[in-house]
Design brief:
238 residues; alpha+beta; Muramoyl-pentapeptide Carboxypeptidase, domain 2; two-stranded antiparallel ribbon; 28% helix
């Protein structure tokens, strides 16, 4: 297991990023990609409109995901919870999470939108700012092992501050017991597996990683190569 601290995320917004372009890589299914990758299509099992039974990524992102999985020891595997999202699914998620916040008492104003978009991107297919998952370059995942999924401190799609990737890095020493140390090690392991394979992490969500899309491009100071994918012309061969 890799047990190095998760670094503080930095992003110099003043640095110009080259213009995005579409590289044309197809979407590929992940269920048969590697014996060390298992798919649990979370939103499909939750019954969301537009959700698919398998999960998909662009070919280059899928190749890097497999590279990350192959670094795991025997008995461990990556659990993919979500990848490419159809536009219909992105709308369904946005509206559902908006309803959840309203039910929690959030006012229907700019503060709600700010809180909501921290965790669920606005549905968009615009070339200059597509929703990350609609590009096929975003993946939500965790690590599984002999005793099931590793403890990461929150459930998937948790909206609390504990979902922040570095939350357990920032806890003072007196607040870290055995459980907190275990969670910190597990998050570190996932982070370094994915970033060493070329992905970047969205710092508000320990489970979310990007490759090739606008989130990745802003951190890497490179051109995004994945724009929105709206068709379902999946590659049959990988």
């Amino acid at each position: 297991m890799i047990d190095l601290p998760i670094p503080q995320w930095t992003n110099d917004n003043d640095t110009a990023v080259p213009a995005a372009y579409e590289c044309g890589e197809p979407l590929v299914p992940l269920s048969d990609l590697s014996k060390q990758i298992r798919v649990h299509s979370y939103y499909y099992h939750q019954g969301y409109a537009g959700a698919l039974q398998d999960c998909y990524l662009r070919e280059g992102a899928a190749r890097r995901l497999r590279q990350a999985a192959e670094q795991l020891p025997a008995g461990y595997y990556l659990v993919v919870l979500d990848g490419w999202r159809p536009y219909e699914l992105q709308i369904a998620l946005y509206e559902q999470f908006k309803r959840n916040l309203l039910q929690q008492g959030w006012p229907d104003d700019e503060s709600l939108v700010e809180r909501l978009t921290k965790f669920v991107a606005l549905p968009s297919t615009q070339p200059d700012n597509p929703s990350p998952h609609i590009t096929g370059g975003a993946v939500d995942l965790t690590i599984g092992g002999p005793d099931g999924w590793l403890e990461m401190g929150t459930e998937f799609d948790d909206f609390s501050e504990r979902a922040s990737t570095r939350y357990y890095e920032c806890l003072p020493e007196h607040a870290r017991g055995e459980r907190e140390e275990r969670i910190r090690r597990n998050r570190r392991w996932l982070y370094h597996l994915m970033t060493e394979a070329g992905f970047t992490n969205y710092p508000e969500e320990w489970w979310h990683y990007d490759y090739g899309n606008h989130h990745w491009a802003r951190e890497k100071k490179r051109a995004a190569i994945y724009l929105a994918v709206q068709s379902v012309n999946f590659s049959e061969k990988y």
